[in-house]
Amino acid sequence: MGKLRPGHLVEAAMWLGLCLFLFIYSFQFDQDIEIYKFGATAWPRAIVLLMAIAALGQLYHHWKRGDEASVQMISAAVDDGSEEAAHEAHHEGLKWYASTFAMLLIPFAYMRIPDWITALLAAEGGSVHVIRIVVAAILIGIFLYTMRRNMIGAMLTLPLFFAAMLEDMGFYSLAPFFIIGVMIMFGENRPKPMLAIMGLIFGLLMLLFVNILYVGLPVGNIHPFYDIGSWVVTVLQ
Amino acid sequence: MDAFDNFLTGTVTLFSDPLGIMIFFGGVIGGMLFGAIPGVSMLTLAAILLPFTAHLSPEHGIMLFSVIYCTGVYGGAITAILFNIPGAPENAPTAFDGYPMTLKGQAGKAVGAAVMCSALGGTISTIIMMLATAPIADWAISAFGPPEIFALVFFGLAVAASVGAKTFWKGWLSILIGLMVAVVGLDPVGGIKRYDFEMPYLLAGIHFIPTILGFFAVSEIFVQAEKKAKGSYVAPKLSVDFPSLTELIAHKWAVIRSIVIGFFCGILPGIGATLAAFMGYNEAVRWSKTPEEFGKGKLEGVISSETANNAATGAAMIPLLALGLPGGALTAMMVGVFQMHDMEPGPLVFINSADLVWVVFAAMFFANVSILFVGFLETKTIINLLRIPFQFLAPMILLLATVGAYAVRGLTIDVIVMFLAGVIGFFLRRSGYSVAGIVLGLILGKIGEQTFAQAMQMLHFEWSGFFDRPIALGLLIVGVITLMGSVYGEFFKKKPPAAETPTS
To answer: What is the pLDDT along chain B (504 residues), one digit of tens a residue?
Structure first.
């Protein structure tokens, strides 16, 4: 086994699995091009081949040298402290990864589940909006419940969740909660500074982008979020 | 004289336009500030600003990025010296001696030397850039066809893979991810859909702006979130003292040597300021009569590192403007600015948009000069701004990135792609992969595939055609040698028992 750890094997398996998937998928567009004899697949397949070679090379490196940097690389320049921070925070175990990836499913659940329920119930009009709000509320509850056990997982999930809800709830309704959420993730727990900073950031962004630059941000498409967003835009512009 | 006249014209154009002046000073201050704040970098600022450059003229957009590039490289020295936290990888060697100087109560002198040498290295590099870029572009028009450009892309990627990540293999995997992301969408020859997974969004390819924002701005916030338990920074009191003329003259060879090293590192695609700073520092140690004093607070360490990294900035613009090939993450973003205005950087820019080029050159010159003055005045302000707790800065950066990603095309899916890229970037960074490599692969991937296809059609699909084109062949050979050298090092070289560079 040399200096191999289970994590190294998982890493190699992920790369090789990705290569296999990309190679198999390339048959979907394996078409001839009249003026170009290599066709549409030669370039991506060459990349996939090189990826597989590099993944095996990386596995060999792990086997011989473990987590050491390559001899010729400037390790001090490369090291941004993220590996050390992960190690110090004990964010390396299988349990942590499993919990983080499970949390990351929450935004994707919001992107899919309301559509499934809508199709299942053959819902229309206002009831579609109700379904989306109920699903969002349940997922927010799950997020808040799980975040205490894995703050970094929550930090990774929060922006994605915010982005997933942006189309429905709009920027203007979500941004204040998002600002407070990020501050909490970074360890801030004093309500007054949080509210003051939230007001300052939100106010500055609104002034700059909505009032001065006229950037059209998503207003949402669900009642009452759409009404709130439209009202903010009307007032500012 | 032509160059001097053009420079004067560029200067007049730059300073006769109030918006241009505002953007110039905004870039100078913004670059220094973001370069200095631990947890973000000039790349974060550039990524945030990238979408908004669509609303600026091409001159203003490129000028803003070039100014940020010059001053951002300096800004990172401040935190490297005061807190032992380099603002960017290219400032890492500055911390080797800068921080011990702070511990000895000589922080003012170290910052003063960084201000002076950054300005000096950057200004001289910019002057050489002004004189050299146009002739190189003229030559490139006749000498560089698709085979040469493809060969240069290959060479650039081969070098970049050996610099950016923890291991050689991770360097290559980072670049290959970027190349693969660039494949998504329609193929450049036949317009065939590739890896679109039946999603209309992917037909146009994954847009580089959300990707860049995600990999640089968002992943940085995530990394900082993980580091937050390590404590906050306390701003010390500081006065900036310039080194005396005698001290500077005593280090003249270190300055000259670092300018030469910085310039040549900067001009090679894929290398840039990081290697320049390390090589400048290492050579200073090697040539010194008292090498044992390095790492313990020697002024020459700060001088050599800061001169070399700023000398690389002007040089890095040469391959971008003369050949259309970015050498690093920030110059790759500049390609994005060009593309947003339906322009392609390269030799034709000198014919079609000479005004733009000279405004940019003038701006870079004055940005480097302004490091001397603004750097002296602003350093104290920056130190005070470092008191802003990161928990208040992080939501601001994330929301700016959100607005930036959304503003490009008005699609919320671009915001999702950005945050997804941030999450992927976070996991890749903590595993030793290089996000700069991914972005370089993404930008160069499109150019590489297109020029490869054109080259093969031009050479009638005969690989031997490369042998008839000496420049292309030369670049391919050097690229292969670089690659083989790295592979040799990987399999046969043994790690020295002790670290070569001091880490203070």
So the answer is: 578 888 999 899 888 889 989 999 999 988 888 887 766 678 888 888 888 888 888 889 999 999 999 898 888 888 788 777 676 777 878 888 888 888 788 888 888 889 889 999 999 999 998 888 888 877 877 778 889 888 988 888 887 776 667 888 998 999 999 999 999 999 988 889 999 888 888 888 888 878 888 888 888 888 888 877 554 444 445 566 667 778 878 888 999 999 998 888 888 765 667 778 877 887 888 888 888 888 888 899 999 999 998 998 888 888 888 888 887 778 888 888 888 888 888 888 878 888 888 999 999 999 999 988 887 777 777 767 666 788 888 898 899 889 888 887 888 999 999 999 999 999 998 888 888 788 888 888 888 898 899 999 999 888 888 888 998 999 899 889 988 888 887 777 666 554 444 433
Most B CBs within 10 A among A186, A192, A214, hence the mutation to make, goes to A186
- Closest residue by Cα to residue B243 from B113, B374, B97: B113
Q: Quick check: is B501 in a domain?
A: no
CB contact under 8 A, B226 and A89: yes
Contact (CB<8Å) A160/B420: yes
**Within-domain flag for B339:** yes
- Whole-angstrom distance, CA of residue B402 vs CA of residue B410: 11
**Structural domain harbouring B367:** 2-147+208-410
Q: Which of B190, B230, B392 sits opposite A33 (nearest CB)?
A: B190
**B153/A8 Cα distance (integer angstroms):** 31
> Would an 8 Å CB–CB cutoff place A30 in contact with chain B?
no
For residue A121, give how far its alpha carbon lies from the nearest alpha carbon of chain B (Å).
25
Spatial separation of the C-alpha atoms in residues B458 and B69, rounded to whole Å? 37
Binary contact (A74, B278; C-beta < 8 A) = yes
User: B378 is written with which tokens?
Assistant: 């602003």
Residue A29 distance to chain B (closest CA, Å)? 6
Residue A55 to residue B179, Cβ atoms within 8 A: no
Structure ipTM:
0.92
Amino acid at B28: V
CB-based contact B141:B401 (threshold 8 Å): no
Cβ distance of B92 and A104 shorter than 8 Å? no
Cα of A98 to nearest chain B Cα, Å? 13
Answer yes or no: is B491 within a domain: no
Q: Verify whether the Cβ–Cβ distance A83 to B490 is below 8 Å.
A: no
B448 belongs to a structural domain: no
What separation in angstroms does the CA of A224 have from each of A132, A170, A221, B338? 12, 10, 9, 41
- Output the CA torsion A174→A179→A184→A186 (10° steps): 140
8 A C-beta contact, residue B128 and residue B315: yes
Residue whose token pair is 């703050």: A151
Q: In total, how many domains does chain B have?
A: 1
Domain residue extents for chain A: 6-72, 94-236
